Amino acid sequence: MTRVHVTVDGVQYSDDIEPRMLLVHYLREVVGKVGTVIGCDTSNCGACTVHLDGASVKSCNVLAVQADGHEVTTIEGIAVDGELHPMQQAFHEHHALQCGYCTPGMIMQALDLVRENPTPSEEEIRLGLEGNLCRCTGYQNIVKAVAACASTMETSTTARPERSAAR
Amino acid sequence: MIPAAFDYLAPTSVEEALAALAEGGEDTKVLGGGQSLLPILRMRLNAPERVVDLRRIDELRGIREEGDHLVIGAMTRYSDIVTSPVVRLHAALLAQAVEEVADPQIRHRGTIGGALVHADPAGDVGAPVLALEADLVIRGPGGEHTVPSNEFFVDLFETAVGEGELLTAVRIPKHTGWVSHYEKFVRVKHQWSIVAVAVALQVEAGTIAAARVGLTNMGSTPLRARAVETALQGRPASDVGDACERAAEGTNPPSDLNGDADYRRHLARVLTRRAVTTALGD
Q1: Class assignment of domain B7-53?
Q2: Which of A62, A121, B91, B224 could potentially form a cystine with A23 if both were Cys, beta carbons 3.0 to 4.6 Å apart?
Q3: What is the pTM of this model?
């Protein structure tokens, strides 16, 4: 067992875990963040995408020990006081989900994409989501939602920063 | 899928890491960013007794200029290479190829050194490293030595990095002012190259003064397309003739579900022409 200290959605956790434990299993089974889902389990589909120190990663392809001393944000950590994050709201308004299984990863990757490029073109949105698969093939509305959110976040100039450990 | 159990060490210096490797023996694996190793461990294609994680070794990370070379630490992440202004300026081909690796999530984690030592011939880093004639810096119990890229790739998943050794840095001669392009062919954007071609050209007064061409997935290692290089050298940039038709010479491409060897030879010729044309700005 190895001791890890990880901040997840603003809360600090310290746990003894096996070094072979994947970050996604740590988040779901130890911390209880079941909003982050396991899709393909082969690092293809992106459903398990979370942010590690503010950058998107596939949490099935990271060991929990690699997150030791670092900060993780999951889909459960982006709404504030029960109010959906603008990206969640945009997915809701544009019907950007069908079965919804890819949605947690899509939203986390969409946030990464607008962080790096606040005014993406349609093509840039599609490229930015290249590592996220929607098996309902509902990409049209996902792209629309990301574009809509990017433009509102851009005009409000308060693209909500990655939440810190403050909470 | 869960990896088999292993002992985990995260040393904070290269010396400590080398000691951990020496003590662990042959059942030890080095963990860089983990984007190739973790799938292997999860699928249990390999079940090492010990994993040595390099993430705490700061000296292995970063990009710096050293005279007429760029020195990129082995643990430098793909995303840091793609966004580096000095890489764009002096080794644009590397940034162009790394941009095509997998997807943003994997580029946030994967490292140049990890990819090079993993040495998957379908990976996108080998061909530009060959074409840019980089040197690979290796440290082991006996000290440090440097291997030229054309001697680095030994065979499928095998490099000049021996047991108990670590790749610490990639030294790339500055190719300031060269034009370049990486042309990758895949069916699904974020997947491994079926074939890809890395081209860097030095154009002087309308003539191709120097040409370097690297091939991805045209054999058990990344390869140089030397016949194309020779044919391009000295030609006017406005008319490269049939130089790119020689792209498959001397290659031994694999046949698999993505395409047979003949199809890959065809791709190599087509992609080389596209890469040269794009690099020259046509």
Answers
A1: alpha beta
A2: A62
A3: 0.95
